[in-house]
Amino acid sequence: MLALALSGGVLLLTPSLARGQDWVRVHAPSVSETWLEGRFVAVDTESLTIRAGGSERRLSHAEVERVQVSLGKKSNTGRGFLIGAGLGGLTGWLIGDSCTGFSSTTFNVCPTNPAAALMGALAGGLLGLIPGALIKTEKWKTVPVDELRLQVGPEQATVAVRVGMR
Fold it and tell me: Residue 83: its pLDDT value, please?
């Protein structure tokens, strides 16, 4: 999303980051080897400012290589199901494979390899839903650095329009 603002006939084009609300992470290798994470504070023609660890960090546009905005924490139920199904299917196949030579005079309890794999995949997938739902990970969207640098005119706009596309 971009915010367009008019002030005195000059068009401002800046990312629509909400001051003090949006959680961002910034990759600035000349400043830190790791991502800097914090709340977005401001962007101007020379720098980007975030609040990290209780203090504000002002980073020049030249130092910033990547900026990402948090989309919030998301559960991993789908990933948990797929990992569980894969492990369960493999385990089921191996159990079915090791059981094929077994015979009993009373009853035959050995499923075929595909049947054992299917049962294992279903059981593993259902079990994988639990950690997938409980483990939440942050989802990030990259904001092009060029859009941060593209800002012309005064910093305070009198009229602002927020435009979004999905």
Answer: 96
What's the first-to-final CA gap in the chain, in angstroms? 9
Distance CA 137, CA 77 (A): 11
Give yes or no for residue 64 having a pLDDT over 70: yes
The amino acid that residue 94 corresponds to is L
| Two tokens, residue 91 | 């385990």
DSSP labels, 52-107:
ETTEEEEEETTT--EEEEEEEEEE-HHHHHHHHHHHHHHHHHHHHHHHTT---SS-
Task: Quote the CA–CA distance of 24 and 106 in Å, as a whole number.
Answer: 65
The tokens for 143 are 């904001």
Is the model's pTM score more than 0.85?
Answer: no
Instruction: Record the tokens describing residue 128, joined without a space.
Output: 């994988």
- pLDDT digits 0-9 by tens, 109-124: 677 888 889 999 999 9
Q: For residues 102 and 89, which has the higher predicted lDDT (pLDDT)?
A: 89
| CA dihedral of 77, 78, 79, 81, whole degrees rounded to 10 | 80
What percentage of the chain carries pLDDT values higher than 70? 69
> Rg (Cα) of the chain, in Å, rounded?
26
